[in-house]
Amino acid sequence: MAEPHDGSASPETLEDRPVSTANLEERLSALEAALTQANQRAARAEARGAVENVFSTYMYLHNAFRDEEIIDLWVKPGTPGIHAQYSNLGVYTTWESVTEYHRGRPAPAGKLLLHYTTTPVIEVAQDGQTAKGVWIMNGLESGLTDPEVAGNVPDFFFEPHEVMGKKVWAHWVWCAYGLDFLKQDGDWKIWHFRCFEIARATHSRNWIDFASLDAASFDNDLMYFGEDGRPKFMPKPDAPASSLAERYSPTRAQELNPRPPVPYRTFAETFEY
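RESULT FIELD:
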């Protein structure tokens, strides 16, 4: 049976006990460390969204044939280590040659480009200075080509029927991208760029049938079809490709390429795309 309350003071609780200066400093230090860690995690999460916006903006501009606006998404001229590999032709290693890819692209009537990216895996370095990401792209590329121009292109690149007296090229295309980003003057910029074409097919063929036609022998250095459907080829690269994107083949097994990034502290500890 509980004893009646006699009005005397309640026993001292843990919260009522005096906190020593040493204990208080220890608790404050722990709170400061937790706050610092939370701020770092928040900054990296914000950076992840910013990096994804950069590449998504790249694709929106590319689809609208406004490639010259993409140039501003790249690191500034003179940045050490800049490079891009758009195909198996080779690597561009200067700001001028990298951005040449985005200059002078026409937007002919009837041309449609729709590349959309999915499945991002993005890692921001613990030091907050660089980031890495991979994406998968699914899309289509299409336009009309004058018959006299089409004579210089393998016939299997086109559909069997003409439209408005012109040959029709209408392709499905699948790619993967690997990019490294660098933070410059407070903004995230593209530093390294790699495109891996996975498969391609005309609308009237499947990708297995198309792969059997050895299309890569023609379009390894093809950049786009321009005015009147004229093929425009890639500029001369600065260096040979150190690794190749293996387009789908019915005689080759699928590989993991590019490999997704993993958490890292600083760029010196990771690989380049």
